[in-house]
Amino acid sequence: MDTNNKIHVLDLHFLDTPTAIGSFLIESSEGPVLIETGPETTFEHLKQAVENKGFSWKNIHNVLLTHIHFDHAGAAWKLAQNGAKIHVHPIGLPHLQNPEKLWNSAKMIYKEDMERLWGAMQPIDEKLLIPADDGDILNIGNLEFKVHYTPGHAIHHNAYQLENVIFSGDVAGVRIHGGIPVPPCPPPDIDLYAWKNSIEKLRKLNPEVIYLTHFGPIEDVAYHLNALEDNLNDWAAWMKPHYDAGNSVEEITPKFMEYTKQQQRQAGASEEHIDQYEKANPSWMSVTGLLRYWKLKEQGRLQ
């Protein structure tokens, strides 16, 4: 099977912005398989994108989630209402069955923007939630997906391998239109040691293509993973003296946002390109995530 010819990239036009959040539709003998759903706010875009590829969203019977953050899994319940099985890491599974804690946690970050960004999230029937753990093989029709546990961005994060292709969620970072690879670092699970181990796991798998949820296929895999790891180290190192000084989130955030934008400008990004990155991976969100990382590390709770 020519895998790449069976993979369709779906642009969900999050916040009316192209190439910020994507899903992937893969043809199989049991109907199309969907990897990532995007948030509930982009569900109409998802349905239209599926139809534009010649399929019906109601024929999607299997959904693979890399993790349960709203930009990746927020609309999973809509597909489950139609009977789709939702494959997710066991740690994330209970939060989709009862999303109240997940919703309240995200609400603390996004506050009054919660509904505008992500929409609603409703419980998914336990019978439709299928645990996908490290080393599992998901046989769906004529397709065989291998599950790779890849924590670091989130403790419940999986990547999925189909032949020589990997769907990486957020563990392989964000890269839009050939820009620089950057790490999304929201609270509460950022763990540099685990993340770099996961990057090394991807290297050893030596995929021909990695599909990024933010956004699309990349083929210069070795460069991409090296640059992502460099930027992960760089962002964490930038944050450390601010943590040590006890600076407030309010004080740090505008400085960090300007720092990341300047990195983009030095790489030749236009202001429009930078805005796409900000929609896909808001740099302000990484402030609290990286501060929490340094706090947990200081307390000896992380390596």
List keywords for this structure.
303 residues; alpha/beta; Metallo-beta-lactamase, Chain A; six-stranded mixed beta sheet; 12 strands; 16% strand
Could you explain the architecture of this structure?
By secondary structure, this protein is α/β, with parallel strands linked by helices. The chain has one domain (3-228): Metallo-beta-lactamase, Chain A, CATH 3.60.15.10. Helix content is 40%, strand content 16%. The chain has 11 helices and 12 strands. The protein has a 6-stranded mixed beta sheet with strand order 1-2-3-4-5-6. A 6-stranded mixed beta sheet has the order 7-8-9-10-11-12, with no helix packed on it. Helix 8 packs across helix 11. It is globular, with a radius of gyration of 18 Å. It starts with 6 loop residues before the first strand and ends in a 5-residue tail after the last helix.
Summed up, what is this model?
The chain is α/β, with parallel strands linked by helices and 303 residues long.
Instruction: Please give the share of residues in helix.
Output: 25-40%
Q: How far do the termini sit from each other?
A: 42 Å
Domain tally: 1
Q: List the total number of helices.
A: 11
CATH class: Alpha Beta
- The gyration radius over C-alpha positions equals 18 Å
CATH superfamily: Ribonuclease Z/Hydroxyacylglutathione hydrolase-like
CATH fold naming: Metallo-beta-lactamase, Chain A
Question: How would you classify the helix and strand content by structural class?
Answer: alpha/beta
How confident is the prediction overall: mean pLDDT? 95
Task: Flag low-confidence runs.
Answer: none
Shape assignment: globular
